[in-house]
Design goal:
307 residues; mainly alpha; elongated; disordered N terminus; membrane; PAP2/HPO; transmembrane; transmembrane helix; PAP2 superfamily protein
Length: 307
């Protein structure tokens, strides 16, 4: 009598790790490349062309806000965005990653802050700005203030638990928006400076997420409902303000070519502010999405599960 040998059971220790798609692994790298390309495009359009400079400078010069509460908020945003405070927040963020034994996130947080701010300072000091708008102003592209604020917001999203990343991202988006608009209102920066700073931080952040996904072999995890709700709120905000910003940008560009006095400075400032809001919202949608489905670390914990 012959017996059919049963197939040997696969031991738990040899179970295959769930596979992830190639797209999921390389998408953060693609985000970094596209963000870097966006910085180059912003520089070419708004620094290297006469019309771009005129539109950008008009938006910066039109920030005559007379509402006292708005002025107070903008002033405080500038006063509290300094390197000492931001450096302390970054140290605390990296420390949170270490305490959670997520050393890759702690290292990633330090990389985002260091690389983004270093890149911003290098570009600002070395990129030429031809005088095409008659102001003879020095180069301010990209914004150091916005880079600092956005990098801090990004690292806080990165090191907080996944379920809270959308909420932290929403708070960070509001803070970065206020700082960015405040730098334009104070005539420290043009709108293009602030948007380029956001893209630089996103490029550095994409590299970090790419490194984390290469290191962690686990499958992706589903998005938490709060993160999805925040992404929806930011998506609606980005769509509305992008439409307003594009229409306003077209109007300002046409009047600069024809009748420069037809559109008021406040209209141009509002147009630039709408563009900033749209770009901040879009940037934080991407960042929350990149970080919200983070694979578990390979560090074993009691019970044979993975964190």
């Amino acid at each position: 009598m012959t017996t059919v040998a049963s197939k040997p059971a696969r031991s738990a220790g040899n179970s295959a790790v769930p596979a992830r798609s190639f797209w999921h692994t390389v998408s953060p790298l693609l985000v970094s490349v596209l963000a870097a390309g966006g910085v180059a495009a912003m520089y070419y359009v708004f620094v290297r062309t006469s019309l771009g400079q005129l539109v950008d400078t008009t938006a910066m010069s039109g920030g005559d806000v007379n509402h006292p509460q708005v002025i107070e908020v903008l002033s405080k945003a500038l006063n509290y965005t300094h390197l000492t405070l931001l450096g302390l927040v970054c140290v605390l963020a990296a420390g949170l990653g270490v305490v959670q034994r997520r050393f890759d996130l702690a290292i990633g947080a330090a990389f985002v802050v260091g690389a983004a701010n270093l890149a911003t300072q290098l570009l600002k000091s070395r990129l030429p700005r031809p005088d095409l708008d008659g102001t003879a102003m020095m180069n301010s592209f990209p914004s150091g203030h916005v880079t600092a604020a956005a990098s801090v917001a990004f690292v806080l999203v990165l090191v907080f638990p996944r379920a809270l990343r959308g909420t932290i991202g929403l708070i960070g988006a509001v803070y970065v928006t206020v700082v960015a608009v405040a730098t334009v209102w104070a005539e420290w920066h043009r709108p293009s400076d602030t948007i380029a700073a956001l893209l630089i931080v996103l490029a550095c952040g994409g590299l970090v997420v790419w490194g984390v996904r290469l290191r962690r072999r686990g499958a992706t995890r589903p998005l938490h409902l709060p993160n999805m709700l925040v992404m929806g709120i930011l998506a609606v905000t980005s769509a509305v303000t992008a439409a307003a910003g594009l229409i306003g940008l077209l109007a300002v560009a046409l009047t600069e070519r024809g009748s420069p006095e037809f559109v008021s400075g406040q209209f141009a400032f509002s147009t630039g502010s709408a563009g900033i809001v749209a770009c901040v919202a879009g940037t934080f949608i991407i960042w929350v999405r990149l970080t919200a489905d983070e694979p578990p670390s390979s560090r074993p914990v009691p019970g044979g599960k993975k964190k």
